[in-house]
Amino acid sequence: xxxxxxxxxxxxxxxxxxxxxxxxxxxxxxxxxxxxxxxxxxxxxxxxxxxxxxxxxxxxxxxxxxxxxxxxxxxxxxxxxxxxxxxxxxxxxxxxxxxxxxxxxxxxxxxxxxxxxxxxxxxxxxxxxxxxxxxxxxxxxxxxxxxxxxxxxxxxxxxxxxxxxxxxxxxxxxxxxxxxxxxxxxxxxxxxxxxxxxxxxxxxxxxxxxxxxxxxxxxxxxxxxxxxxxxxxxxxxxxxxxxxxxxxxxxxxxxxxxxxxxxxxxxxxxxxxxxxxxxxxxxxxxxxxxxxxxxxxxxxxxxxxxxxxxxxxxxxxxxxxxxxxxxxxxxxxxxxxxxxxxxxxxxxxxxxxxxxxxxxxxxxxxxxxxxxxxxxxxxxxxxxxxxxxxxxxxxxxxxxxxxxxxxxxxxxxxxxxxxxxxxxxxxxxxxxxxxxxxxxxxxxxxxxxxxxxxxxxxxxxxxxxxxxxxxxxxxxxxxxxxxxxxxxxxxxxxxxxxxxxxxxxxxxxxxxxxxxxxxxxxxxxxxxxxxxxxxxxxxxxxxxxxxxxxxxxxxxxxxxxxxxxxxxxxxxxxxxxxxxxxxxxxxxxxxxxxxxxxxxxxxxxxxxxxxxxxxxxxxxxxxxxxxxxxxxxxxxxxxxxxxxxxxxxxxxxxxxxxxxxxxxxxxxxxxxxxxxxxxxxxxxxxxxxxxxxxxxxxxxxxxxxxxxxxxxxxxxxxxxxxxxxxxxxxxxxxxxxxxxxxxxxxxxxxxxxxxxxxxxxxxxxxxxxxxxxxxxxxxxxxxxxxxxxxxxxxxxxxxxxxxxxxxxxxxxxxxxxxxxxxxxxxxxxxxxxxxxxxxxxxxxxxxxxxxxxxxxxxxxxxxxxxxxxxxxxxxxxxxxxxxxxxxx
Length: 888
What we know:
Blueprint: E1 4-7, E2 21-28, E3 33-41, E4 44-45, E5 51-55, E6 60-69, E7 74-81, H1 98-103, E8 107-108, E9 120-121, E10 129-137, E11 140-147, E12 164-173, E13 176-182, E14 210-216, E15 219-225, E16 231-234, E17 241-242, E18 247-252, E19 258-264, E20 276-280, E21 292-303, E22 309-314, E23 320-325, E24 329-334, E25 339-344, H2 349-360, E26 374-377, H3 383-395, E27 402-405, H4 425-434, E28 438-443, E29 447-448, H5 455-462, H6 495-502, E30 506-507, H7 514-528, E31 542-545, H8 564-567, E32 592-594, E33 600-602, H9 603-606, H10 610-626, E34 631-634, E35 646-648, H11 657-671, E36 677-678, E37 680-681, H12 690-700, E38 707-710, H13 724-739, H14 741-754, E39 759-760, H15 762-765, E40 779-781, E41 785-788, E42 797-802, E43 807-809, E44 821-826, E45 833-837, E46 840-845, H16 851-854, E47 859-864
Parallel strand pairs: 26-27, 26-38, 27-28, 28-31, 31-34, 34-35, 35-36, 37-38
Antiparallel strand pairs: 1-7, 2-6, 3-4, 3-7, 5-6, 8-9, 10-11, 11-12, 12-13, 13-25, 14-15, 15-16, 17-18, 18-24, 19-21, 20-23, 21-22, 22-25, 23-24, 29-30, 32-33, 39-40, 40-41, 41-45, 42-44, 43-45, 46-47
């Protein structure tokens, strides 16, 4: 029988003189935790209170403290239970119930001690899949996975497990492996994003940092770090299932410290492992708790207890959610595609990012001017207002390189047009460019279909660029910003009424198509060089692409969607507005797109790639027309977007909690390979206030992408909108930024050449110090500059952690005299704490109003000696604008 160990004496004609006893029993391969142990002799129960331990990774149980005498018969019984931490959610969908749970062959037990603990969980470790036909090669393994359920589970349509799957593991390099699970009998959608993989694997058995074990029944994969034996991936768990519209896999984790997954606003840098589920699906959603926002980033970095680090990418673009539990473990659920995992072995956090960006693409190299301070707002009335702002900033001597216009410059928010209120914008752009400044223009993807003379739409129809209903010639129309012609907008009406009355029918370009890329390039070129009237040409230097989730103000389409299963799939992951379906604020999932080779794909599968697909074509045309490097800033991202663009953290709010959250967001996008990043300084929504905006200007001076931007209808918050003291605070901190731009530019080069981080969490430099694993209110620029901003209202000091190194106060040059501890540092309103790390040399340059002038000023070296009286540094310098390979 199971769960009993019978000790039977078959001969007893020897009595041992040493009074020997069995004091411990170790059980190998036990798949569930052992909870209670009883010992009986004959029919008599013994009084025992043994110590029981269980290692779920190795599946080893140890019973200690027994007193079983040699030569006597015993029966040792135990019960197996699912400890709370070993409960894996068996019914993650909406409206779980006891009946639905038991139909899946699972256990229902209501635990009111913590409402996050799943009521419905798997009762055994069997996932129904077993591996066979296992073949090992020098560079990987293959196997067939076969499903044979021992339970009579009842599945909904589209969620019945596929009976035979294929597993391929490829050991691409010594620090990176891939494993892929797919249906080889029926071709399924796979992500069309190319990765940088060696044409043939380069790893060798003796130098690989990992070893892979295939567990055959129930199926699982285990990946260990060879140098330490630490298991970093272990998926032999009951959750694994693979069906047409529901795929799920779990893994045990090496520690509680996991970073990444996005894009969602987080309250700490490391994920909270206490039963939290986060959805990932690109959506026009301002940052908020548990609300899936603009981008889709299915990558995480895990720390191991000894400080080694690894990273895991799931290359899947379907809607997904991830559950973290204190086991520690995480569970992925996605509603399409295949499972295609890439694991990088570090072993340092910085090497994880370098290896990950080697795979998905190194961060873009921005032009030097893009590291200058930038101003924007939604709601400029006309070009005169912007011209006055430029003059006021010059008069206040506040460094400032880039001016924007939001959609106000367009006629009725139509792409590629110019509003009569901004008739002077072309001349203003030329003037500020002559003075050493630069200009960035916004473009949205949606194109109005209600105009009588609008080449962008007419040519788009001719070139067949718009997303259509499946297998028809009918364009799917949503509504976004463009207004109908000949309407007078009444802004006092409620939003939905305004959308209905005033917003035009909008078509969405399919940026996968070659014809769309050509069309987009033509339309942008004609903004830069207006063929009808050269005086209307807008000589922009960068392009800001917004609303590219894609966003729509009607859910799905005007008139609604047509395919209920795709818009309300059998499993609806944990999203904001979960019950409103996938078309909420975007297109219908049945929309048909076409890859460059002509393959038809559903928007359901490629929705999260929309922003990614728009980004490279935008950079290509920008560089083609300007003949310079330029910069693209995109709202929606996917792994690899950083090759072509930066990213801002979206429509935040003027609130104190947003300061720390912006640091977390920047550190996450560093991890995702997008270095050029920052938040809207002083907040987009709501009126900012003096102290908040001053502290935000100080913090924002250390965003790689440093832009003050706010929303329509809110009071001005640019540096010259307050008073002379505010101007002085802004001028002083931006002068520090501009002084340090040679160092920041070098860090950007290092990111582009080697994949290093620019905004760097402290744990990347001091991973041996576990205190740094939880620090997210301070950050580093590269290895050498520590930024410790004030993030709380009314604070005049900051509680900062100075890791174990020699640190110098940037403002006073003094060695601070302590390390490896928290200290309260004085920080009056005009002050931000900055420290230079001993052992490093930073290149500096005298600041000026713009980088065009600061780049001509004398250079200086700041040499900060370490304890050994040594220091080193690097400087990368070029003309700041040329396109091309930046020499390694």
